[in-house]
Amino acid sequence: MLSKLLSLILIFSSLGMDAVCRYENQLSLGGNLFLVNRDYRISADYVPNDLVMPQVKRTSDSVLLRPEAADALERLFQAAKEEAGYSLVAVSGFRSYQTQSLIFNRRLKSVGRQKTMLFVALPGASEHQLGLAMDVARQKNTSLNASFGSSPEGIWLAENCYRFGFILRYQEQWTEITGYAYEPWHIRYVGEEHALRIQELDIPLEEYISALRTTIDLFSTENE
Ligand SMILES: [Zn+2]
User: Fold this and answer.
1) What is the pTM of this model?
2) What is the pLDDT of residues 58-71, one digit of tens each?
């Protein structure tokens, strides 16, 4: 992992200060690289003001994303259909703090704290509140479980979502870093240039952002 981080810092450094400053803006709330996990929570009242409904197959009428991510999702689903003949379905996009709270408490009652903590985000700790995450299923079976990851649709999604700016956020080997169990159905929009690097280096978003922050620090120290 360390050598991957070093090579990423070298890549960022080679892009120059302007590019890195542009990326720095994307780290703040509203940006494509804003980090949300158990340690970094969003405030209860954050709701993106530009949510739209992607024009894709979906399981309900309230599947919402921010416009850039919605547009990318449409192209992703279209490519799945055209290139591989797979029908993907959007299951869950934006979720408010309040909705996440309901889901968390319901699960807490039914399966207990330990399991709930691994599988369900605490309110404020879900990327879904950003309007940049989508749970994807196949049309043949819209339930969200680990078997999606070994289905042809799930494999195609893992191999191709980066081309449209999405990353597979919760991989099995990253549980300790991301804080969440394997979720082959959950994709997060970060934009194409970041998704490409994350895919090539095969690292979690936490590591990508940490390398970016290190590079920003290096640039700012140089200029002091
Ligand atoms: Zn999800």
Assistant:
1) 0.94
2) 998 889 999 999 99
